[in-house]
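Notes from the 1:1 (GR / supervisor)

We went over the backlog. Supervisor wanted to see one worked example end to end before approving the batch request, so GR pasted a single chain during the call. The sequence is below; no edits were made to it. Supervisor asked that the structure be written out right there so they could see what the output format looks like.
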Amino acid sequence: MKHLIRLNEAEGIDIERILDLATRMETSPELFQNELAGRSVGLFFQKPSTRLRFAFEVGVAQLGGTTSLFRTSDLQLSRGESLADTARVLSNYLDAIVIRGGTQQDLLDFVQFGKIPVINGLTAKYYPVGAQGAAYTIKKKLGTLDGRKLAYVGDGNNIAHSLMLMCPKSGMDISVISPEWYQPSPDVVEEGEALAKKAGTAFEITDDINAVSGADVIFTDVWTSMGMEEERDERLQAFQGYQVNRKMLEMTGGKPMVLHCMPVRRGEEISAEVAAESEIYENAANLLHVAKAILYYLL
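Structure output shown during the call:
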């Protein structure tokens, strides 16, 4: 049984296979409309969601299955029942579960004690579904991932971590450009470097925005993620000079795609002008096809 927790080497997730499935599901949806008939997918969402929630709810429905959306407050977890017991019990009712907003350990506990595929719908450290959504958008637009360069500009957060693992496995170079105190976790950097060395791709962590040079894709995210609102003023100050704007696009020496996993804070991490010309809405739409492909692949 496979799970999507980190997109690391040990999981053995075939990214190219998922992207190919997403293409088929977008172009020939009628061929897959009953693939999840009689199956139920749990959506254990502990944080708000717009895109991911509807991507999975609508995606499961289009594949003929059903979903159950719930939070901790809806379960006996809120009254002290163990996660181990919860995972064992839910495995009797569900065929897969998407968990958003828990810790990495929560996901690992579900993997250990449950008996269904577990999908990481976002933790503080990783967002593998978002990274694969970006990969699909890039492939649709540019035709291939191999040999492309992605520059991630902004907070070294969960989506940055997942892109750092996804890019080398897809043949892409990556530069993560963040202020010194907001760079990615050292353990993920070490893992990404090892993947890049194995794949023969470039891998760079820097605070120098000139590293966007040669980028085919610029990816950014909010400077203040959910749960970090008290740090907002400090972060706005720290990230000055890291806005994705017209000047930064010109620094690439080309015409890069611009992606953002949303929600967008125009005037902060990205200028309104660049946001209006970007592929952010296409990327959001593509999350539906990727969510369907992930479920089909795991089930």
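Supervisor's comment: The chain has a mean pLDDT of 96.
Batch request approved.
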